[in-house]
Write a structure and sequence with these properties.
Layout (H helix, E strand, L loop, with lengths): L8 E9 L7 H7 L3 E7 L3 E7 L5 E7 L6 H9 L2 E9 L2 H10 L4 E5 L5 E6 L8 E7 L22 E10 L2 H11 L3 E5 L2 E5 L6 E6 L6 E9 L16 E4 L12
Parallel strand pairs: 1-4, 5-8, 9-12, 13-14
Antiparallel strand pairs: 1-5, 2-3, 3-4, 6-7, 7-8, 9-13, 10-11, 11-12
C-alpha cells in the first residue's frame, strides 16, 4: 500500500450530532462567523453545514423521523457530540477494498443512490470516531442553501475551521489509519501528528496519550482577531473548541 498523498481522497467535513431543536446558530454563526452553506434531508436525519473562511465545513446532524433511528440511538447513548468525519473518494469500492485488505471491517455500505454512495469504518477501528467514505456525483435535485443566512463580513469574521483534534494511544495506529489507509501527508509538531490532505482545507491533529481514551477531543479553529469560544464542551453541541495557530500547508489552502 502506497503512503504517498492521494488527491482523490479529501477530508470533506466534520459532523456533530445534536438533539432535534437544538439552537446552534449563535455559536457557529455569530461567534465563529460561519455561514450556512448546505442543508437537506437524509435517511433518519437532517443536516446543516456551516462553512468558514478557509472553506472548512462543520456539519450538524439532527434526528428526523420516528424514534429508534440510528441518530436517536446515538443521542440516547452518548448525548450531543462528535459523530463522524467524511472523506470524499473517487471510487468507493476501490477505497473500501483497500480498507478490507488492510484489515479494517467496512460496515453500512450503501450503493443504492447513484449520486451518493457511502460506507463506514466503526469507531472501534477508526481511532474512536466513525469514518465515512463517500462517492458523490452531481444531483440536480440536491438542496444547496449557500445564501440561507447571507454572506457575512469575511474580513471581520475571518475564522478558519482548522480541523479535528484526536487522541490516540499509539502513533503507529494513527499513522496506519490516517496516513496509510486514508492517504494523508503526515508531519510531526511537538507531541502532535498532523495529517493533511492535498485538496482539503481541514486537517486531523492527533495527540499521543498512552493512557487516555481514544477519540475526538476538540474542533480546532484559528482567527486573526479575538473570538470568544467556550473553555469547556459547549452545552448544546457537546464538543470543545480550541484555538490554534495554523501554519499554511502547500496545497491545503483554497484560493
Amino acid at each position: 500500500m502506497s503512503n504517498a498523498p492521494d488527491p482523490s481522497v479529501v477530508l470533506d467535513h466534520i459532523a456533530v450530532a445534536v438533539p432535534d431543536g437544538a439552537e446552534v446558530g449563535h455559536l457557529l454563526g455569530e461567534t465563529l462567523g460561519g455561514r450556512s452553506a448546505k442543508a437537506g434531508p437524509g435517511r433518519g436525519f437532517r443536516f446543516w453545514q456551516w462553512e468558514y473562511a478557509n472553506r472548512g465545513r462543520l456539519e450538524i446532524l439532527r434526528p428526523d423521523g420516528p424514534p429508534g433511528g440510528f441518530l436517536h440511538r446515538f443521542l440516547e447513548r452518548r448525548g450531543a457530540g462528535f459523530h463522524h468525519v467524511t472523506f470524499k473518494v473517487q471510487d468507493l469500492e476501490s477505497a473500501t477494498d483497500r480498507a478490507t485488505e488492510a484489515g479494517y471491517d467496512v460496515v453500512g455500505m450503501d450503493l443504492s443512490d447513484p449520486s451518493w454512495k457511502e460506507a463506514f469504518l466503526h469507531p472501534r477501528q477508526a481511532g474512536g470516531i466513525v469514518v465515512q467514505f463517500a462517492e458523490e456525483h452531481d444531483d440536480p435535485e440536491a438542496l444547496d442553501r449557500s445564501n440561507l443566512t447571507g454572506r457575512r463580513d469575511r474580513a471581520r469574521l475571518a475564522v478558519d475551521l482548522v480541523g479535528l483534534r484526536m487522541a490516540a494511544r499509539k502513533p503507529a495506529s494513527a499513522r496506519a489509519l490516517w496516513e496509510k489507509l486514508l492517504k494523508a501527508r503526515c508531519r510531526e509538531q511537538g507531541d502532535l501528528l498532523l495529517f493533511h490532505w492535498p485538496e482539503s482545507p481541514l486537517r486531523i491533529a492527533v495527540q499521543i496519550e498512552p493512557d487516555a481514551p481514544e477519540g475526538a477531543v476538540a474542533v480546532e479553529v484559528s482567527a486573526s482577531h479575538p473570538i470568544e469560544i467556550p473553555e469547556t464542551p459547549d452545552p448544546v453541541l457537546g464538543v470543545r473548541f480550541i484555538r490554534v495557530s495554523q501554519e499554511p500547508v502547500a496545497g491545503n489552502r483554497p484560493s
